[in-house]
Structure formats: structure tokens, C-alpha cells
Automatic annotation (TrEMBL), chains A, B:
Keywords: DNA-binding, Transcription, Transcription regulation. The keyword Repressor does not apply. Residues 11-131 form the Cyclic nucleotide-binding domain. It comes from the Bacteria. This is Crp/Fnr family transcriptional regulator. Residues 145-218 form the HTH crp-type domain. CDD domains: CAP_ED. Pfam families: cNMP_binding (PF00027), HTH_Crp_2 (PF13545).
Amino acid sequence: MDTDVLRRAPLFASLDDEAFSALTEEITEVDLSRGSALFYEGDPGDQLYFIISGKIKLGRTASDGRENLVAIMGPGEIFGEMALFDPSPRSTSATAVSETRLAGLKHENLRKVITRSPEVSAQLLQALARRLRRTNENLADLVFSDVPGRVAKALLDLADRFGRPATDGILVAHELTQEELAQLVGASRETVNKALAEFVQRGWIRLEARAVVILDLQRLKQRSR
Amino acid sequence: MDTDVLRRAPLFASLDDEAFSALTEEITEVDLSRGSALFYEGDPGDQLYFIISGKIKLGRTASDGRENLVAIMGPGEIFGEMALFDPSPRSTSATAVSETRLAGLKHENLRKVITRSPEVSAQLLQALARRLRRTNENLADLVFSDVPGRVAKALLDLADRFGRPATDGILVAHELTQEELAQLVGASRETVNKALAEFVQRGWIRLEARAVVILDLQRLKQRSR
DNA sequence: GACGGTCTGTGATCAGCGTAACGCACGGTC
DNA sequence: GACCGTGCGTTACGCTGATCACAGACCGTC
């Protein structure tokens, strides 16, 4: 498989060639089509995944079937590493949002590398610290902001990570249905739809199939606070 | 200062005496009375803290002054370590909930220890992973559960961490005002008060000054789901 | 072109919970 | 004892957003 992409990941940047090839020797490549699940909440897990291309949603399901998305992960990002340090079953499920290619690494192999290379643990610590920061922020938003505010915030976040400049604004090909967007911001599909409709009507965004174009970044930012 | 308590902390358990004494040489002892702040959101921070006794609340303040508590930390726990890996200003404020004694360690000193001892980074990774798991859970609860459910959950969590058996149940001396409890579960003081009153009326709990006694653990658990 | 799935758009209803506005109990200070 | 600050208990009211219930749009498949 193509290890070049992995080589360029910050997590492995500090490794010497020997350690890197030892690590990548036992890599599994996984391809997923939209909607297919990689693992479920409660599964045992001994792998972590690096996203080569595509997007993965991490979510939790309540006993009554309602779902809540914890994060959307994109190319170059890593997930499923928590069980490495805290050996418990998967705390979320992972499902492909679009055609997705992953590289799976056994925890065991990474653990060996960690003991030898403090730089790798530093990278992992940083990644976890950032995730924790983000999650705390989301928690606060859920308390402080109303649904339109959270939708605005989510769009801005997605734009930041997946946006590309277009002729009349920023194209955000998030690949999410409105239902998924609703699960991400912790609201009902209907309310999210109404919020989006309002933004469109104000000329802040334009809707496309599983994508939005942000036309007025400033206004949207104001609404998100 | 008394380094025995620190010695017993899992984070430092793996250190040899030399490394440990190097680390503790530059320790600062901090005493706080209820309500006094250790640091604020946005402050630069180059220390992490170990709680010797007492409790600390970590919170965020919205622009309009409303507050939201991210966590209550108790004896033996560590906080303020995130800036170690992800050098940004403090993402929360830290305030004493009761008389509290802390040991402050400079990030710089801990960083030195980390590079030498992979066990310490493993401990830190585990602590962060657990925190992230907990926070994700709280996030889901905020979406899925109503206020009484969240209050029940918070009480159970506090009981788990600070509860002591009493004659007629579990005494949870959480030291929080109802206002603070409300900020912790993301609700208004009034609604939390109503929820508590209902639990009392059903005979599930008994209220005391900044404490509760859990009388019917089973029912409370059921309500929390 | 007819059918069935999935997704989007929108209105009507209803309840959970925030807000506002009280009164009361307690403890500390002069 | 008089005073004040802080925390608790409880009410009435209104609004945000979930739920329900559709209708249309856009697929792919037969």
C-alpha cells in the first residue's frame, strides 16, 4: 500500500526510517462506501485508523435509537486511538460519510514505537488535548447557543476543515445529510432545516447537494457567537 | 512540603527516586479558600496542578456572563495539563469549591521527566483519554436527557467520586451550591431545584447543606438513563 | 414512464425549561 | 439586636425547539 501519505502525517514525522517501516509493515487497508460502519459502540477495539481519503462520523446511539455525532473526521486525521491508553470498549461507533480509505494500525505495534520515541507520544498527547478542548467547547455551545447559532458554528467549523474557495464564496462539501448535520449540532432535522433556510433567505449561504457555499462569512460568524 | 501524597499519585508511581525528587524540588504549594480563583479562561499557563485536598471547579464563561462547569476535580486528580502539549491559553477558569490545597508543577519540569520516562506519558495519555470519554458522554447526555435525568446522573457521578457510606444511604458532600450544580448539568438553578425537590418527595434523596444523601440508589440510576 | 427509496421543505401543536419575581432561612458583622 | 449577603423554595408566563404530519424533489431500478 501507499505509505507516502502516512509518512507525511505529523504523528509519524519524527520517526526514523527503521521505526517507520516496522510500524507500517503490519498495516491494513480498509475501503468503505457511504453508510457502512467500521465499528460500533461497545465493540472491543485493538486498532487505530488513519484517514487517507474520505470522511468518518463518530457517534453515539441512545437506547431509544436516537443518534448524536461526536465528531466528523477527515483526511490526515486519526481516530480510535483512545482504547490504546484506556482499555475499554469503543465509546462511539464509526461510519463512513463518503467513500473512504483508511489505514488501520494495531495498537500493539504503535505501543512499541511509543516507548522508544517520546516525540510520537508528544504528538498523541497534543492530538488528544486538542480534541478535548474542542469537545469542551462543543459542550459549552450546547448550553449557551440556540440551534441556529450552533448550525452557524458547525458550518464555520466544517468550512475551516473542508472548505475550498469558489467563485462566489467558500464551497463546503461536507457530504452530510441534514439529518446528520442535526445529529452533529444536537437538534432535530426540522429545526436545522429551518435554520439553514433562514440563512439562505438572508443571503449568507447557498445550499447544494450535501454541500453549502458560504457567501457572507462575516454575518455567519456573528450569528455563531 | 509534604511530597508523600504526590509520591502515591499514579502519575508519579513509576518514577525512580532521583527523577521524583528532581521533579518535586520546584513545587509550589497553593492554598485557596472557597470561591477564590486560581486562574481564568484566556490566561497564559505554564503550570499544572495536583489536588492534595479540596475541590476545584473548571468552567467557561459566556460573553453575557453565564457560566458552564466542565468538571469538578477532587483530591488526587490533576488539571491544567492541557497547555503542556497544546500551547494555548487556559481554555477554562479554575476556582476553589471548598478549602483547597494544591501542588503546582511547572510544565517545563514535567516535560523533562516525560522524555525520559514513557510510563509517565502513558499515564498522562490515559488521563486525557478518560477525560475525553467522560466529556463525550456528558455531551451525549445533554442532547438525550432532560434536566431531572442529568441531575440524577450528576448526583450519581459525584457519589461515585466523593460519596461515603452513611447510616441510611450514601453521603455525598459535594460542596456545591444548587447554582453550581445547575451550571454543571447545563440548566437553570430553578429547574435543578425542582428536580431535587421531586427526588426528595419520592424518597430517593435527602438534602443537607451543600450535600445530599442518596437513599434509593436503584431508582436514581433508573431515572438517570 | 411508473414505482419506491431517500432526502428536503414547511406548517401546526405542545411541553420542557428559562426567565422573572417573589418570600424565607440562615450566618456573619457591626 | 439590627442589618445584610447568600443560598434555597416556589410561583406564573412565554418562547424555543421537539414531535407529528404532510408534500414535493430527486434519485435509481424495473
